[in-house]
Amino acid sequence: MKDLPATSSVTKSQKENRQQTHIWLASDHAGFQLKSLLIEHLKAQDDFVVYDEGPLNNGRVDYPDYAWPLTLKVAESLKHKTQCFGILICGTGIGVSLVANQHPDIRAALAHNIFTAQMARLHNNAQVLCLGARVIGQDLALAMVDVFLNTKFEGGRHDTRLKLMNQYREQYEKS
To answer: Is 0.85 surpassed by the pTM of this model?
Structure first.
């Protein structure tokens, strides 16, 4: 894995004393403006190392070309026990969520409000938040991202359900 860039707002001694959360963001052309706003919002906070995985402008692109590489980066980072999340944005959020959920180690959740963003973490331990730029407004998106990133997985009966999902996937892969 490549070296991770340091954020300018965190000193070296602060970084050594705590683990920062790494956040990858990607979109398609419909989500470009919202992605840019979220990147600015997250970079203004000291607790995050933020990566813009594209696109670099709002020219027409195909969302799988950006959603899949982000998914791979989050999955690889999770293997190394790095605290990380992904945020994917397209017009509805549906397409990018379908792409991200193709990876067996990723749980991507499409959220449309603060409650669903919170429950994606609290009950489903989602690592990737998917948003629809044509569905939600900017203020709501900012609030949803903050809630998603600050909600801890509840575990317990929800952990049992995640284990069941993995068992069913493994059974299917063997069949």
So the answer is: yes
